Automatic annotation (TrEMBL):
Bias type Basic residues, positions: 1-19
Pfam families attached to this UniProt entry: DUF2567
Coiled coil: none
InterPro entries, A to Z: DUF2567 (IPR021213)
Protein's UniProt name: DUF2567 domain-containing protein
Organism: Saccharopolyspora karakumensis
Location of the region described as Disordered in the Swiss-Prot/TrEMBL record: 1-39
Residue spans crossing the bilayer: 64-85, 115-137, 144-172, 192-216
Keyword vocabulary terms for this entry: Membrane, Transmembrane, Transmembrane helix
């Protein structure tokens, strides 16, 4: 009869004296730090998922009404933008020809570009300022408010062109009895519709930079 205790199987290791001894450790070299696989219990996995906050989703219904309000308010910016443009854009000194046609004098035709450039700069500055104001509305940050701001800026640019042209025509009216060869100041006007993208582009750029600088998944909506 065997009276000793059974010994668990181990690994033989060579000692300095030439002998061998049994090692119960599964690692050959005690100095190694090899990581062993560890099983995660279902209870621990459920606890970890409960402690991890859920990823925030895009809020549409709650932000829809503020976005519509933003469209209407931003569109009103076209009124002061058109008024300011009508005061800054220079007229063209032109010569009255036969049949009521006018021809700009010398370099006066460059003022057409000046009117376009001034309106583009005004719209770009208005877009950046609008983006800063929209970003300050912390509780409504997100793509819905951004889309509302872009649509409102499009309407504001169109309204600014129409309002600015009407005001400029009132500042530089045609003379009552013009004669052939008279110098007539022609009111400035925006001759291209590409200026409509200036304000939405600036708004999207400013809002996008603020979003990329923010480090929260929900853009800080919960910190309001």
């Amino acid at each position: 009869m065997v009276t000793g205790k059974f010994r668990k199987p181990g690994r033989w290791r060579r000692t300095r004296g030439g002998g061998r001894r049994v090692s119960d450790s599964p690692v050959d070299d005690p100095g190694t730090t090899r990581a062993l696989p560890e099983r995660v219990e279902p209870q621990e996995a459920a606890l970890l998922s409960a402690l991890t906050p859920p990823r925030p989703k895009v809020v549409v219904k709650a932000d829809l009404l503020p976005a519509i309000s933003a469209i209407s308010l931003i569109a009103l910016l076209g009124l002061p933008m058109g008024w300011l443009w009508s005061r800054l854009a220079p007229p063209q000194e032109s010569v009255l020809g036969r049949g009521g046609t006018v021809s700009p004098m010398l370099v006066e035709s460059y003022h057409e570009f000046d009117g376009i450039a001034i309106f583009t700069l005004l719209a770009f500055a208005a877009g950046l300022l609008t983006a800063a104001v929209l970003w300050r509305i912390r509780g409504r940050r997100g793509p819905v408010l951004l889309i509302g701001g872009v649509l409102g800026s499009l309407v504001a640019s169109w309204l600014g062109i129409q309002m600015g042209g009407s005001l400029a025509a009132g500042l530089y009216p045609m003379p009552s009895n013009p004669q052939l060869g008279d110098l007539i100041p022609v009111a400035p006007e925006v001759t291209t519709m590409w200026v409509l993208v200036a304000m939405p582009l600036a708004l999207s750029l400013g809002y996008g930079i603020a979003t990329s600088w923010n480090g929260f998944d929900d853009l800080g909506r919960r910190l309001r």
